[in-house]
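Dear support,

I submitted the protein below through the web form. The confirmation email said the job was done, but the results page showed an empty box. After a refresh the structure appeared. I'm attaching both so you can tell me whether what I see now is the final result or a partial one.
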Amino acid sequence: MNTPKEVFTAEEQDILSPYVTNTNRSVFVLTNLPEVIKGALFSRYSRSTLGLRTLLLKEFIQKKESKFDQIQGGGNQQKSSKNIELAIESAQNFYDRILDGYGDDSIGELGGAHLALENISILATKTVEDARIGGSPLEKSTRYVSFSEKINGEYQFYQEPTLIKSVHCNLFMETCRNLFDTYVQFTEPIRDHVRKCWPRDSKISQNAYERSVRARGFDIIRGLLPAATLTNMGIFGNGRFFETLISKLKVDSLLELNEIGQLSFEELNKVIPSFVRRADTNHRHFQDFRDFDFSQKEFVSNIADSQLGKLIPDKSELVNLIDYDSEAENKVIAAILYPYSSIPLQQIRDHVRTMSDSEKSKLIKQVAGLRGHRRHKPDRGLELAFYTFDILGDYGMYRDLHRHRMLTQERQPLSTRYGYDTPDEIEDAGLGNQYHEAMARAADAFEKISKDFPLEAQYVVPMSYNIRWNVNINLRALTWLTEIRSTPQGHIGYRRIAQEMFRKVKEVHPVLAEYMKFVDLNEYSLGRLNAEQDQENKQTAGKASYLN
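What the results page shows now:
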């Protein structure tokens, strides 16, 4: 690689060294710099003939207006966060001028932050995770963590302010408490039932076995948790992601989301202020977004009510494939061949149409056969084949599948009107009557509350109740989704959806389905058992290696 054009004096190297991993190579990484400086620096970088280190030195470190010496992190660890915050505020016009000077929203992607959202409802997490591009969320698992803890004598669920102030307060509180009581009462009996049905093999360690039993137990009873259940989540995202997310949260119809949006703005404003400033309630961009959002919701909801209000939902399967491209096979083959040719795409497609079915099938089978495991990603050509599914599954399934981001999906509001899932183990353990009673109480509460507060009523809906959502996805993303979500350690609910999505594709495109070669169609008892034993073996091997 070429040596860098920049040559720094010994003094300049000393100044720069805390902020770059090297001063003499063409590839380097920025270190010890706040997001506001990194973002502004890269913004300036795109329209300068200078190298990044020279820009950092001349236009930031040596420029008094930037307040660099007051807000940088390297070598100044004694500075209080309050002083840094004041320095950033003082220099705000400087950084905003740089970022605004390029007039491109993508500039907002040059700075990022880690945001923690604690004690927010399971219902709220889905809206936060709807903002799928530019952010990476991680949510507390219902499979490995108990939600039975009480604080100050109360289970941890969101006490929605509107409901608490309404005539439905007692109904809401008692329904949620009953669901948690049932969850707690089921915990040990279900684990005992799991142990009875699937005794430990002598080859499996006790610790691995118990972790598998615990995970399976939580899988079985998690459907009792109401959407109001409090959880924690962490998000890493760039400034553009957070600005859009905060704006959406602040205009949502639920008070909890408004509060999350405002608190997120206040905290992110302390570390990446230049990147989230347009989400300020007083900013003209936010006000324009709010007005547009309100007008759109009002208009479309009125149309939906007038056009669809009298229709009765048809009975539907777990997974319905409602749309696919009949030309998908030809498009995929042409797209696969395209990068290795100098021929125009249309001409390649025309040629592919002249190929016999056996030729096409052989080509795809041979290319798909090169995949040795699911992490061998299929060719990008598969992104030209799209499928639209309409799915009716319980809220727990939806929450797990919702995390996939390379797709388009829309959900309908939570309700108790489409039935609920009953795990076989609950019936087999003799707990069916108590389970059905808890579900019925929740449904009764939902119907009563929804007459006055249809959106807020969602908080009382248990995760076992079904929700309807649709997914539009390309074949490449679908291959990844179905393969990873059908692995033995997956939850039985979403495994069935992944398996059914594969079957639907195979019915209409049997040749293209060859790519989805690692979809697991088997059923498992303790699905995580092998994974837990592998982990146990690794820990044992690691200890042995350390001792040796």
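Response: this is the final, complete result; the empty box was a page-load delay. The longest strand covers residues 112-121.
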